[in-house]
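Reposting from the mailing list since nobody answered there.

I have sequence plus structure tokens for a pair of proteins and want to know whether others read the tokens the same way I do. The first protein:
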Amino acid sequence: MSDATDVAVIGAGVVGIATAWALARRGYSVTVLDRDDGPARSTSFANGAQLSYAYSDALGSPALLRSLPWLVLGTDPSFRIAKPLSPRFWAWGMDFLRNCSRKRFSANTIAALGLAAESRLAMHALLERHPLEFSYKAAGKMHLYYGEASFPTALKVMDLKRSHGVHQEALTPVEAERIEPALGSVGDLAGVIYSPEDEVGDPHRFAVGLLDLLRSEYGIRSRFGFDVVRLSLIKGGVELVSNHLGSVRARHVVVCAGVGASTLIRSARLRAPICPMKGYSFTAPPGVAAPHVSITDTERKLVFCRLGDQMRVAGLAELGAWDTAVDPERLRSLVELAQSSLPDAADYRNAGFGWAGLRPMAPSSVPCITRARPEIILNIGHGMLGWTFAMGSGERAAALLQ
């Protein structure tokens, strides 16, 4: 296998491209493979764009467990469970429920915070060396809490994170409005959690720019339209077989294939519990009171993110949905929720295309980054925080080869 690449990276989303960067910087020859026709065309294309280094809380928690009956019954317009429910979904769901205890929530949140902190450092190191353009900014982030019961719970989680070095502050609505005047139109706030060091950036532009850099300065190769359907262990490495474009051989492979990873790795007799969580976004011109700080409306489960001269709004969750098509009714629901939250944040009448993507959810909310076989590394299960975790995940995956 003298003609083989050192490492093949399956998946050219932000996690895959960040992994390719970490590997190339260590001197490995790298080939990136993806079934789409360019980088970051799927889940990374138009996500919420927030780099939530201080807010990487695990999804499974006692608070979510208490609200689960209402979520299952479909009374929350922001959340749905896709039908029909498969045996794989039930197996994932039972594992998720086990991660909703107070002890596991704390452990998973602390583990996610560690990875997020590594990602922040890795992003800063990259940009000091190669100043890419992707609407990157340390905008800060505010989580808005409306319920008198939800805000005290958020304060307890904030205290847990602050004890591990995270910079967050609890603000009154008046204090929050002084920092972000766009909140002047928001009523009935119980309080705000402010993460002043959190950042934003366009994930698609990041992936395109970093891949161009890797090709020109680090000699990595990429093959698009290459849908890997099988991993075959062969002497000296792995053969990655496509349906119609032949195969690629590598000494090692790093799987960064999002929701498709669990099916793909079965050909190598590996398993990973991944469940898709479908989400939506739209991008619109800023409104007359567009926020500069990133905003998360915890009641409506929305994020507002300023990307240069555009406003990105993302939300909704459909657990177990595998269809990436944009449902016009759901997109309309997202726009209506955004207008009810921050009516002047965006020019909603001129909203651009709608997007839908599948977030690869691990039951613990902590990505699986492991050397599953001597030849195969998994870097999967990043959930709704793939953009936040990408750089740190790439560093961890690359370090496993050393």
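The second protein, same order (residues first, tokens after):
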Amino acid sequence: MVKKIFKHYDYSIIIAIVLLCVIGLVMVYSSSMITSITRYGQESDFFYNKQKGWLVVTFIVFFLTMMFPYKLYQKWLPLIVLFTFGLLGLVFIMGHTAGGATSWFKLAGASVQPAEFAKLTVILYLSLVLAKRQEYINDIKKAFTGPIGLTMAIFLFVAIQPDLGTGSIILAIAVTIMLCSGVSRKTIIKLSLIGAILLVIMGTIGVMTGQVTEERISRFTGVSDPFKYAQGQGYQLVNSYLAIGSGGLTGLGLGESVQKYGYLPESHTDFIMAVIAEELGFFGVILVIGLIGFLIFRILMLAKRSKDPFASLICIGIATMLGIQTFINLGGLTGLIPITGVTLPFISYGGSSLMSLMIAMGIVVNISFFVNYQEKKEKKLNHIVAYPNKKTTNFE
């Protein structure tokens, strides 16, 4: 039985995750070794050791999650939703403030960010609810009132921390799942209009409550002309350009980055890809993006192959989370969009992000088991029907 279980996992997904985590660990050490000493007064391997510890814990969680049948999340979903709202509310009372945002808990020397796990809650909730409402999926009032309400509630909790980067990812995940839930084009248009109205309302509330500050507006200024504001709003972006440009095709060599010597803030988190570009060059960047792209592709193919709407929508939500988070991170360090503080999946330093990603990947790998097992079972049955008098092959 154990042999059959492990035989049906999608090991290409597992291998891609391991490779990304190994690359991430190496680059966390390389990008943070100077910052650890000069900024935090620690040993050069301070962040490397912390990330290594997180990897050990998260791989254990990943292994347990991939063994846990994904359908059982239906039973525990109400508790998961309540727990998520409890943590998001508690962070305003007991949370730790850093960088102007109250988004973390300090637990035993580690920082835990509830918003990272809220993304998974949104994925599981929307996937389950919309999968169960397929018979009347085009009735917006019946099918989407609850999902829209919960999504907006979680978004507001995250946005007022403030963490608009994670909030944007949550909205993108929700919109994608809703649009892929089997709705008609007419319903898509209606949902788009509702979304536009809600965005206008939220923007108005943000202006009236002072959430739209000069600091946030300055991020757009820094993106529009970073070299003009090189000593101010454009400082991070200019140094990111210098790191990317100096790397060329093959890079300066592992550990040889110049920009990590205090010129590039958050070199081990938000801007770690700039250090990768500087040290490993274009080929290093392509390797990382290629592995993340491969993961997204395999997860979407799994969504297509699954005959369970719940599983398909979960995979779509997780693939969207990976894709949007990657786009926001890379878009920020290349000047395509304002810098939002979103980390690069599996690569950037950070325990909460890594933990939520590993749980998500564990769910995906568990779904791959059920999809592969079902396909092989159907193949065996089809073989028996086609050749009733012929000895069948052991497909399992």
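Reply #1 (J.P.):
I read it the same way you do. Residues 2-378 form one domain.
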